[in-house]
Amino acid sequence: MKIFNSQVKLSVLSLLSTFFLLSCENDTTDIGANLIPDKLEGKSTFVDLVAYNIYNNDTIRADYNSLNNGLVGIYEDNIFGKSKASFSIQVRLSTSDKIKGNIQQVDSVVLSLNPPFNPSSYRERKIILNPGSTSGIDTIKYVKKYTLASYLGKAGNSMEVNVNRIKNTFLESTSSKFYSNKIIEVGDKLGSALLADSLTSISVKTSDGKIISEPTVAGYRIKLDPEYFYQHFFSKKGSSDISDNSRFIQYFKGIKIYPVDENSKFMFNFPVSKMTLIAYYKYKDNSSDKYTATTYSFTMNSAYNSMVGEYNFYNRNTASSQFKQQMNNPDKQSGESILFLQGMGGPSIHLKLDDSQLEAIKDSVQNHNWAITGAKLKFYLTENVSSKPGYIYGYNYSQKKFLPDLTFYSGLAGYFFNPKYDFDTNPQYYTLNITKQIKDIVEKNKPNDEILVEMGNFITRSTNSNEYLGYYKTTRAYEPFRLTFYGNKNTGNKKLRLEILYTKN
């Protein structure tokens, strides 16, 4: 399909400019420049909209079919209030390991979580392990601390988390629907850990470059009670409780990971696919005097491990009065001056473009020789918060489907429906490019559908980054972030509105 018809003769519709077309020179570094075949300098104009918050009642579907990541932590501010996140998952028998020997001694049991981090953002400390050596060659321990990539909170915090065995709550199957207000009852405590706001990796080398030990995987390692696992698992070798998974998940229903301290700390998410639960033990037969060391790896990330994210502890009493007012009584007629956006089950942003102004643009295109080369929504932050997500996204709320720009221009270099936030130059706004959506309205008479904007990004198939799984398959359920934007009831350049780029001859 041709993006533009270069044979169309272009002119300017001046009658409409007095009431809403505030034209200015086009920023040719923006998306419109990539779409102008003849490289002519373009112009821009604006269309008003109405935007307000949808509350969502602080709940969201948070089960196997909506969680690629787990989310754990607690955080509070004076705008959104307090949020607490816990994560529960079934534990299944190993697919390859067996309990070996007649006698076992469990040395340690380790639950590993591996949150995403920025490999280029780290602090390194060098520790000389053999001071005073006369050989001239030192052994050096390198300790690298990496910044978490999906982290909400102030730097320097630490947070205690518990891991407990699930009690009286069966997580059913991976086809089960769970929502984030589900309460998971816990029983015996299996372990705890004090988690820092960074991930540590350790390696050892000599000063002449010889590698003594490779860098450890940067992540959280939570030590669980080895005696408990001996009593409730290894000593039950041969028992029907652990004979197969159908019996085992009834007997040992799973684990819950949750923050202990109710004070504001931080939140982080982690890929479920990288979770491990490994028991390190040694075994022997009755007739042997020698133990052999081995491991037992429980299955944590298969296509059968049911899970649920629990975000049921929301304290909106400490939220701002404006937040509470807009959640309870949004101005759906004229919109808002401030818009709130939050991950998990927090508020979304609903917006509708002005019908009459789009009709004027349509008239300009159809009868007065305009060619639209770009259309974008810019969401300006009201403050430069330290913890920001890479993406926000939107979809056609009226028809419950993708906006066409997500895939239509995917092959066009430099064009993205929701480009990643520019952390380097810090432009203070997020962008949704909806060129195709607007061209369909003004050129093909398609309806001016409502748009819903939410925190996070669409999920693609693991084997194909260009294949999206569905408008409802997103990272929103485990995004910890919260942002405030300028709404449509503002003046100046930060007002939320649609910018349309066009050319003329």
Automatic annotation (TrEMBL):
Residues 1-25 form the signal peptide. Keywords: Signal. It comes from the Bacteria. This is DUF4270 domain-containing protein. It comes from Apibacter mensalis.
